[in-house]
């Protein structure tokens, strides 16, 4: 159980919620602090105010699964936020530390996507598999050191960027927050997070705010040396029963980026 992280997460979620969000009167003009009061959360969750205050002060014993469920309901937590809360409280089983192999079915799918560049990332956003068109579009991943095959490090090196870099940073923070709760002893993950906190103010803010809601769609811009800048939709698909995600890149038909992607596909054949 990580008492300090749990306390910080509860406080930030409480301050985000307005009384109207949870069915309470707004009481406009009579509040001195943002969000809900501690006693309101305690009442909604059916626990004592003293106990909830001690949770936010990192002084309470480990909450039961029933209390966590009640807090999740009181604070209107999403499924991802509820899972994160449980892991911070030490109630969720730790994820296996061994690296999961990419399923054979996903590898076959990568090869059959034809004109769609695609790659697979793990929980740490390491790029662990890709198709030939993704390598032609972004970079030859096979020539990179293993530690450099990572979405955040590619962003820091300027290999590819998101249109509105803050959206990518916030999504990355959400995904890595969940991964950090599952793998608290992952030194590589800790080092990557610290590196990107220094690089991106938006990531640092989202990391501090415990944002764990996924953002499955982004816009990316990739400056290709032969075909120029391509503006692409980046869609994230989760692999059932796995922690891997499949990233698909596509362009709107009729746009210069779509034409460039078609030309790149032809050149790669």
Q: pLDDT below 50 for ≥5 consecutive residues: which ranges? A: none
Mean pLDDT: 83
Q: What is the H/E order?
A: HHHHHHEEHHEHHHEEEH
What topology, given as strand order, has the largest sheet?
2-1-6-5-4-3
Q: How many domain units?
A: 2
CATH fold annotation of the largest domain: Beta-Lactamase
* Strand-residue proportion: 5-15%
Cα shape: elongated
Short summary of the structure?
The chain is α+β, with helices and mostly antiparallel strands. The protein contains twelve helices and six strands. β1 (118-121) and β2 form a beta hairpin.
What secondary-structure arrangement, pairings included, does this model have?
Elements: H1 3-16, H2 38-45, H3 49-56, H4 65-74, H5 79-88, H6 104-112, E1 118-121, E2 127-130, H7 132-137, H8 151-156, E3 161-162, H9 165-182, H10 187-199, H11 201-208, E4 217-224, E5 228-238, E6 245-250, H12 256-268
Antiparallel strand pairs: 1-2, 1-6, 3-4, 4-5, 5-6
Helix pairs in contact: 2-3, 2-4, 4-5, 5-9, 9-11, 10-11
Biased composition (Basic and acidic residues): 1-10
Domain HTH cro/C1-type: 9-82
GO molecular function: DNA binding
Task: Characterize the structure shown.
GO terms for molecular function: DNA binding. This is Helix-turn-helix domain-containing protein. InterPro entries: Cro/C1-type_HTH, Lambda_DNA-bd_dom_sf, MLTR_LBD. The chain has two domains: 86 residues, lambda repressor-like DNA-binding domains (434 Repressor (Amino-terminal Domain), Orthogonal Bundle), CATH 1.10.260.40; 165 residues, Beta-Lactamase (2-Layer Sandwich), CATH 3.30.450. Helix 2 packs across helix 3 and helix 2 crosses helix 4. A six-stranded antiparallel β-sheet has the order 2-1-6-5-4-3. It has twelve helices and six strands. With 269 residues, the chain is α+β, with helices and mostly antiparallel strands. Strand 1 and strand 2 form a beta hairpin. Helix content is 46%, strand content 13%. The model has no long low-confidence stretch (mean pLDDT 83).
């Amino acid at each position: 159980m990580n008492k300090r992280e749990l306390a910080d997460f509860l406080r930030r979620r409480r301050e985000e919620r307005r009384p109207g969000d949870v069915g309470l009167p707004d009481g406009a003009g009579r509040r001195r602090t943002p969000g809900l009061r501690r006693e309101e959360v305690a009442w909604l969750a059916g626990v004592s105010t003293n106990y909830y205050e001690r949770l936010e002060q990192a002084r309470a014993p480990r909450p039961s699964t029933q209390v966590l469920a009640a807090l999740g309901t009181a604070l209107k937590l999403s499924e991802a936020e509820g899972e994160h809360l449980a892991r911070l409280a030490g109630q969720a089983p730790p994820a296996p530390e061994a690296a999961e192999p990419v399923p054979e079915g996903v590898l076959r799918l990568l090869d059959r996507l034809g004109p769609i560049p695609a790659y697979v990332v793990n929980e740490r956003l390491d790029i662990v598999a890709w198709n030939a068109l993704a390598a032609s579009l972004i970079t030859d991943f096979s020539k990179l050191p293993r530690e450099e095959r990572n979405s955040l490090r590619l962003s820091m090196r300027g290999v590819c960027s998101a249109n509105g870099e803050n959206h990518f940073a916030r999504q990355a923070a959400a995904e890595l927050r969940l991964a950090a709760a599952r793998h608290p002893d992952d030194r590589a993950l800790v080092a990557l997070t610290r590196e990107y906190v220094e690089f991106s103010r938006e990531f640092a803010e989202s990391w501090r705010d415990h944002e764990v809601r996924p953002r499955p769609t982004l816009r990316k811009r990739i400056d290709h040396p032969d075909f120029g800048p391509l503006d692409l939709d980046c869609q994230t698909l989760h692999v059932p029963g796995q922690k891997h995600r499949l990233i698909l890149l596509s362009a709107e038909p009729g746009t210069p980026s779509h034409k460039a992607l078609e030309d790149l596909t032809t050149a790669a054949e």
